[in-house]
């Protein structure tokens, strides 16, 4: 797996999907959304970008970073998926800052931000979310119990004029703001919260609780 994106021999810039997350722990749903986005958007790689600490989640119950990174590595079995600690190495916790730093560090890559539907609903609470959506194409993946509400939510409403089909996300040049899409994919009812709850119920030691 090539960790440093550049240009291909044909001059095309590499397309990198960024699936940011806590991965507390990582699970099959992460690999599923990463691969669904990769196929639908014809991406070259998807990075499972482990967050040093989601600014909207409490630190209590969050497993150590190294444990979450190892967990993300465990689900990144496909050679096109890469679990990475780059956000921690960049010293950033806010996605707007991470994206700016990544663009500076990898000027020849084209980044797409991948979100589950639950995070599209939450997007208006992120720092400088309108700037993120204006500068970075977004790919939203369905999630049981969230998809419908997300597509009727505030972010989808504010950004409605820039919604495109997944296959068209790379097709057009955009100057007035980046496009976004809802990727049609199977829903997977799996979450880190449920995994932690099951571990706690089984009385497993050293498992973080929410
Ligand atoms: N089953 C799933 N379907 C769609 N998207 C998912 C799924 N699981 C995780 N995601 C998305 O992956 C990204 C990282 O998710 P995260 O690491 O927080 O896992 P989670 O299962 O949502 O965790 P938690 O239950 O602790 O909130 C988010 O954008 C989230 O929406
Ligand atoms: O930048 C923000 O304000 C912001 C607020 C909440 C979440 N995020 C990012 O959203 C991604 C998903 O987080 P999580 O915890 O739901 O897996 C992860 O990359 C977080 O850093 C970012």
Automatic annotation (TrEMBL):
GO terms for molecular function: nicotinate-nucleotide adenylyltransferase activity. It catalyses: nicotinate beta-D-ribonucleotide + ATP + H(+) = deamido-NAD(+) + diphosphate. This is Probable nicotinate-nucleotide adenylyltransferase. InterPro entries: Cyt_trans-like, NadD/NMNAT, Rossmann-like_a/b/a_fold. The keyword Nucleotidyltransferase applies. Its EC number is 2.7.7.18. Pfam families: CTP_transf_like. Catalyzes the reversible adenylation of nicotinate mononucleotide (NaMN) to nicotinic acid adenine dinucleotide (NaAD). Pathway: Cofactor biosynthesis; NAD(+) biosynthesis; deamido-NAD(+) from nicotinate D-ribonucleotide: step 1/1. Belongs to the NadD family. The lineage of its organism: Bacteria, Pseudomonadati, Pseudomonadota, Alphaproteobacteria, Acetobacterales. Gene3D superfamilies: HUPs. Residues 18-197 form the Cytidyltransferase-like domain. NCBIfam families: PRK00071.2-2 (NF000843). Keywords: ATP-binding, NAD, Nucleotide-binding, Nucleotidyltransferase, Pyridine nucleotide biosynthesis, Transferase.
């Amino acid at each position: 797996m090539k960790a440093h994106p550049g240009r291909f021999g044909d001059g095309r810039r590499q397309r990198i999907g960024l699936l940011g997350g806590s991965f507390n722990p990582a699970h099959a749903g992460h690999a599923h959304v990463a691969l669904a986005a990769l196929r639908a958007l014809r991406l070259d790689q998807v990075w499972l970008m482990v967050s040093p600490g989601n600014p909207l989640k409490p630190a209590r119950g969050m497993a150590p970073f190294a444990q979450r990174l190892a967990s993300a590595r465990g689900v990144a079995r496909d050679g096109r998926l890469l679990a990475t600690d780059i956000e921690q190495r960049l010293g950033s916790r806010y996605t707007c800052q991470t994206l700016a730093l990544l663009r500076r560090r990898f000027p020849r890559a084209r980044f797409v931000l991948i979100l589950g539907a639950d995070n599209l609903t939450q997007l208006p609470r992120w720092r400088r979310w309108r700037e993120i959506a204006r500068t970075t194409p977004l790919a939203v993946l369905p999630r049981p119990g969230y998809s419908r509400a997300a597509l009727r939510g505030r972010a989808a409403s504010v950004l409605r004029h820039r919604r495109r089909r997944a296959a068209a996300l790379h097709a057009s040049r955009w100057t007035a703001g980046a496009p976004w899409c809802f990727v049609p994919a199977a829903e997977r009812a799996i979450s880190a919260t449920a995994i932690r709850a099951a571990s706690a119920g089984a009385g497993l030691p050293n498992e973080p609780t929410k």
